[in-house]
Amino acid sequence: MPITFNVIQKRNPQDPDAPQKFYADIVGNGETTLADLAKYASTVSTVSKADILAVLESTFSKIADDVADGKIVYVGEYFTLQAGGSSEGRDTAAEVNSSSIESVRTIFRPGKMIKDALKLSTFQKKG
């Protein structure tokens, strides 16, 4: 199934007076849930959907806990997750403390398997 995109018009933020240009904007097309993953896995193995769902739930719960503990979580050749963030600048190193942290986010890095799958993607204009 191809990746779907819309066409959008944007200004150049570095040159607001320049004419707007048109760009492809990739949009989501459907969703896959944890239950969908478990159902698929049960069709290609001898393990039941309920057992697979239990394993996935406990695995992702552990991933969330480890990321929250500051660990870098490597999920095989699929992806890596870790915490990242931004902080307020201070004049001296001594002034920097935990209250300097303004936001925390999750950093997702696709691994070889996802990168290779995306290289084989096709695209289709929506509509």
Automatic annotation (TrEMBL):
> Cross-referenced InterPro entries, in alphabetical order?
HU-HIG, IHF-like_DNA-bd_dom_sf
| One Pfam family from the record | HU-HIG
User: Is this entry keyworded DNA-binding?
Assistant: yes
Please provide, alphabetically and separated by semicolons, the GO molecular function terms listed in this UniProt record: DNA binding
Q: Which intervals hold domain HU?
A: 1-125
Instruction: Specify the species.
Output: Chryseobacterium indoltheticum
Q: What is this protein called?
A: DNA-binding protein, histone-like, putative
Superkingdom of the organism of origin = Bacteria
